[in-house]
Amino acid sequence: MTDEEQKEKIIELAEDTSVTEETPNTEETSPLDATAADDNGEINFNLSFKPGEIVERSIVDEMKSNYLDYSMSVIVSRALPEVKDGLKPSQRRILVAMNDLALTPSAHYRKCAKIAGDTSGNYHPHGEAVIYPTLVKLAQDFSTRYLLIDGQGNFGSIDGDTAAAMRYTEARMGKITMDLLRDLGKGTVTFVPNYDGTRLEPSVLPAAFPNVLANGGDGIAVGMATKMPPHNLRELINALQAMIKLGNSWEGNAVYNQLRRDKESKEIIPRTLNSKPEDYLENYVDTNDLEYPIKIKELREKIATENNSLYPEFKSEITPLDLIEIIPGPDFPTGGTIYDQNEILNAYATGRGRILQRAKATIVEGNQGRFNIVITEIPFQVNKAHMIEKMADLVKEKKLEGIADIRDESSREGMRVVIVLKRESQPKAVLNKLYKYTEMQKVFNANMIALVDQQPKTLPLKRILELFISFRITVTIRRYEFDLAEARFRAHILEGLLKALDMLDEVIATIRGSKTQETAKTNLMDKFKFTEVQAQAILDMQLRRLAALEKMKLQNEYNELQENIKTYNDILENPAR
């Protein structure tokens, strides 16, 4: 079979929907399975026996049912990354805990024991001993392509050395992590209760870049395992731009636009002081000091009942062959060389494939007429010390001949393993045997499984990028909805302040004639038709605002807000721009 025929076969596999998004069948029936709730909101059970009656069940069926429940819990809550932000729950919770501690790239380092403790206590109740290794991996430049955590101290080495205890190491967030967290407090993602209901945590991060492909990842679940290779971020961005150019024309959703207009026509309802964040769990949950809730629960319910999508899904006409021209292959943090692009194309087109890696080695002339093989890069997830030990064992067993000495000259400047050859050795023959018998050559078995709407799916490269673009469309629209609501609320307050300054003497007289602050607020609302929010803002206004220059500043701010509101409305009415 020629290369062209092989590529055509791979494309046929990519177009076969049965190959792409595979989802395990987890539907099982049981006498105790619950059905939908009735009109009173009470759950009806399909009980095949009367209350108080003992029913014999096969232990095989019971074990099967319980094991499936357990396996789905492991798949969704522990082992597999989310396609939207590329993070497993433990990784996401570590970053959220660090964000709570304000450990930005410019902040001082904090002890990893503090970070692990906060993560365990607030979000991930599995103990610090489980959380710390996850944190360490995110800070290792040989494990993570783009470091999400900036570590200080001993975080292990490529030789298999373990990290120092968490009481000795320190960390803060990496620069690129801020792009994962960007706009987190702007209602862009849904927040859910943590394990004990004492606080809220994001179900996913806004993720301004496709971290699931940039950093890759691996995880072993029940009955499945994911092994996602890392990629070059610049190539991924170029691929996203190409996909958008070849994407469908996104006109928005008519139902969404109509409901948004209906929502905007309603009066702004200020949030009361005694309201709790949990009250808005089904709405946009804000983590900042917003003054009112952004109601969208009714909108989402109507969309769901009409079997329509709130945010239409993005599709692109780009082909795997087009993508591989932009993304020629993975980009592993340890470097190395990748061979056989047809296998890479197969992995990208189907979500599964073998990626052959080789160490980067050069043959140089040494002293006394000898040649040396110098290794500067090794395959991903290879322990350098074990690789050298394996070489030494093969030399002792005489499976590798022609090697006089092996030296590890690696330093902070980079990796350097020198293999000194005997005078009579053939350098290329020795190098080929090293590839054959040692981990200088290794296969990365890509199995690109990620969670899509809480379901594990095997995803080809194109589908992952489409899902990411769809997610970013949703994030962007929700951010503009948030900004629009904030701008309108601030403009509403400024309208009240400007109106009060125009009739300043009457307003002051009304306030002076009131016995209490609450009476003053009521009098302002009754006499001048101010809203409660405007009346409170007038009472809180400082005396310096009475100056003519300050009034001009308020007017300029109001005019700027009106321009912003117009821009936000235009974007939301025409999402394709």
TrEMBL record:
Compositionally biased tracts (Basic and acidic residues): 1-12
Lineage: Bacteria, Candidatus Dojkabacteria
A GO CC annotation given for this chain: DNA topoisomerase type II (double strand cut, ATP-hydrolyzing) complex
SMART domains cross-referenced by the UniProt entry: TOP4c (SM00434)
Family: Belongs to the type II topoisomerase GyrA/ParC subunit family.
Keyword annotations of the record: Coiled coil, DNA-binding, Isomerase, Topoisomerase
Domain annotation Topo IIA-type catalytic: ranges: 80-577
Transmembrane region(s): none
Residue ranges that the Swiss-Prot or TrEMBL entry lists as coiled coil: 544-571
Name the record gives this protein: DNA topoisomerase (ATP-hydrolyzing)
Superkingdom of the organism of origin: Bacteria
Residue span of region Disordered: 1-37
GO process annotations (BP): DNA topological change
Broad enzyme group: isomerase
GO molecular-function terms, A-Z: ATP binding; DNA binding; DNA topoisomerase type II (double strand cut, ATP-hydrolyzing) activity
